[in-house]
Design goal:
The chain has one helix at 2-19, and strands at residues 24-29, 33-35, 38-40, 43-50, 55-62, 65-76, 83-89, 92-99, 103-107. The protein is α+β, with helices and mostly antiparallel strands and 115 residues long. The chain has one domain (21-107).
Length: 115
């Protein structure tokens, strides 16, 4: 009986990550942008976000190196493709939002249309 419960416990522990929500994706940023206070070059980036509810910490990494972590809000919405939204501020392109297939990540201080 103890073996059965031990096996059931192990099975449950190893299956939890399979059901966890996917909080990562990739995005291509077509030109140099400022994210928070960090300027990053054009390229492909791995995104990960942590936190509960709409307020999260968004991390952009490239080649397994974390480049920047900034506060963001998760907005549930369907998008046709992964893309980025930037604004020009004082001659510098600033990253404001990242649209993924099932959600958008809006960086702090930015707004999404309809907000």
């Amino acid at each position: 009986m103890k073996r059965f419960f031990g096996f059931a416990l192990l099975l449950a522990l190893f299956s939890v990550p399979a059901f966890a929500a996917k909080n990562s994706d990739t995005v291509r940023i077509p030109s140099k942008v400022t994210v928070g206070t960090t300027q990053i070059p054009a390229g492909s980036y791995k995104l990960t976000w942590t936190g509960s509810g709409p307020d999260v910490q968004l991390t952009l990494a490239q080649d397994r190196k974390t480049l920047v972590t900034v506060p963001a809000k998760v907005v549930a919405e369907k998008n046709d493709s992964n893309s980025v939204v930037t604004n020009t501020e004082s001659g510098t392109e600033v990253l404001r939002a990242i649209h993924l297939s099932k959600l958008s990540l809006v960086l702090s201080g930015a707004t999404v249309s309809g907000q």
